[in-house]
């Protein structure tokens, strides 16, 4: 018999009933150090008092009214984002994939309204991950995500990531814009180079294209800046945001310049739940905390220290890990044994992390994590590596 929950997830046999900060307590009573943060979502950790209060207070008033009416909470959150970013206007939605879909629609619509209806293609890059809708698996371009779902959605072209030599030859008269992750997360924590990011902006300016950044995973402080494109000093025309912006409550957003945003006129796009009072109250609590004095500096300081700690983990891992990737609190360890085996080993050490492509262990703790908690995570990684090496030795002895 098929389970009541559809079997599209390979879930660990583990359930949690309580969280506090960077810790989760499972129904089996064990306490886990959470360096997965719900796949880089729980930006303020678990049960953060300001976030809990914002959600509970708003839920007791009004949760949803639809976008048929003004939503003061959305207006306030949008204004805060505009004041602190390149953007002139904000659209709210519910998820990263939905934000990416809206970003693509905005780029195409802006080209159409600027007398370029032929410009409908979006240039994406190999190794990307933009979501699971039919449109976004086409943008992602990974056959593993496309298998069994029929023809891909037309209008997405792909080029090598971090390769400036092939960039211009991938642009055609049908190209409307470029969409890129400043740090590719799903494919193994791969940051874009400064040269590549600068070349994208230059090419867009040269060809009259719009530059879109998928900041679903890198945004809202994850890299030590409010948004990762700030690390490169490259201004986008539009970005997608989700994951950490709601701190665990479903919320997505698209931030855009007036040149792009002004073409999304009434009737051109919509969402029933997007930007409702409850979601935006959560987003306000998160953003106000991330923008509070010292918060992003804390992420930069702890993130840098964590990177150094992970270099030491590599040296002490007995060959289980061979390199560290990433920036801020978006880190990856490249594994020598299968990452699935490493995941099982760290789970035995009561440490949670996330697998990624290219055999990488993704470490994306809540942004409130301390250096002491990072050291504890690293000690657990070392113990997990030792257990894996001991298991390998025992297997080899039995085989001989």
Percent strand? 15-25%
Q: What percent of residues adopt helix (DSSP H or I)?
A: 25-40%
Which descriptor suits the 3D outline? globular
Number of strands: 17
Uncertain residue ranges: none
- Summing up helix and strand content along with how strands pair, one would put the structural category as alpha/beta
Cα(first) to Cα(last) distance is: 43 Å
User: What's the arrangement of strands in the largest beta sheet?
Assistant: 4-12-11-10-7-5-6
Helical stretch count? 14
Mean pLDDT: 97
Major β-sheet annotation? 7 strands, mixed
Computed over alpha carbons, the radius of gyration is 22 Å
Structure description:
The chain is an alpha/beta fold and 400 residues long. It is built from 14 helices and 17 strands. Strands 4-12-11-10-7-5-6 form a seven-stranded mixed beta sheet, sandwiched between helices. A hairpin with a 2-residue loop joins strand 1 and strand 2 (23-26). Helix 2 runs antiparallel to helix 11, helix 12 (295-316) packs parallel to helix 14 and helix 13 (339-348) packs across helix 14 (371-399). It starts with 15 loop residues before the first strand and ends with a helix.
Question: What does the secondary structure layout of this molecule look like, with pairings?
Answer:
Layout: E1 16-20, E2 23-26, E3 31-34, H1 37-40, H2 49-59, H3 72-83, E4 89-93, H4 96-113, E5 121-125, H5 134-140, H6 143-146, E6 156-159, H7 167-170, E7 175-180, E8 183-184, E9 190-191, H8 194-207, E10 210-214, H9 229-232, E11 238-241, E12 252-256, H10 258-261, H11 277-290, H12 295-316, E13 321-327, E14 330-335, H13 339-348, E15 351-352, E16 354-356, E17 360-363, H14 371-399
Parallel strand pairs: 3-15, 5-6, 5-7, 7-10, 10-11
Antiparallel strand pairs: 1-2, 2-3, 4-12, 8-9, 11-12, 13-14, 14-17, 16-17
Helix pairs in contact: 2-11, 3-11, 12-14, 13-14
